[in-house]
Amino acid sequence: xxxxxxxxxxxxxxxxxxxxxxxxxxxxxxxxxxxxxxxxxxxxxxxxxxxxxxxxxxxxxxxxxxxxxxxxxxxxxxxxxxxxxxxxxxxxxxxxxxxxxxxxxxxxxxxxxxxxxxxxxxxxxxxxxxxxxxxxxxxxxxxxxxxxxxxxxxxxxxxxxxxxxxxxxxxxxxxxxxxx
Length: 180
Description:
The chain has helices spanning 3-14, 37-40, 44-58, 74-84, 125-136, 154-160, 171-179; strands spanning 18-24, 30-35, 65-69, 88-91, 104-105, 113-121, 140-149, 165-170. It is α/β, with parallel strands linked by helices. The protein has one domain: Rossmann fold (3-Layer(aba) Sandwich), CATH 3.40.50.2020. The strands form 2 sheets. The protein has a 6-stranded mixed sheet with strand order 5-4-3-6-7-8, with helices on both faces. Strands 1-2 form a two-stranded antiparallel sheet. Helix 1 runs antiparallel to helix 3 and helix 3 crosses helix 4 (74-84). It starts with a helix and ends with a helix.
C-alpha cells in the first residue's frame, strides 16, 4: 500500500466520509453504509491525496487529458490536472441548450488518450455514460479511476465494456482497515 493510499484511508475515516448505519441510497436501495463523497471532494487534503494517487499511476502512460463528469468528479479532475500537469475536460450530463451546445468543456482532440475520474461507483452506469460521450467525440478512454468503489457491479460493467477500471479504494478495503 502506497503512502498516499494509507493517507487517503486515514483522511476518509477522520473526515467521516464513510458512515455506517441504515441508509436509503439514491437508487432507493437500502444500505448499511453511506459514502458521503461530496464531503470528501470539498476537502483540499483529500483532493490532493487523490490527485497524487492517480498521477502516480498515469505518469508513465501517454495520457493527453483528465476528464470528469459534472458535478462530483470536476474537483477530482481539477486536482489531478494540477498535479499531473495534464489539461482537463468536464463532461456535462447533457448538451447545453444554448451557446455552443457542447457536452464536453475543454479541448478534446481526435484520438486523445483520456483518463476519466469519478468520486464513487456502484454499478458504474453513470460513469459509463460519460465514457461514451468521450468516445463518441473522438477520445480514447485508457483508464477509469474512482475514489471509492462500492463493489456492486462496476468492475463487471467496465470489464464488459473493455475499460480498465482502477478504484483507489474498495469498500471491502475500507472495512478491513477499520477492523484492524
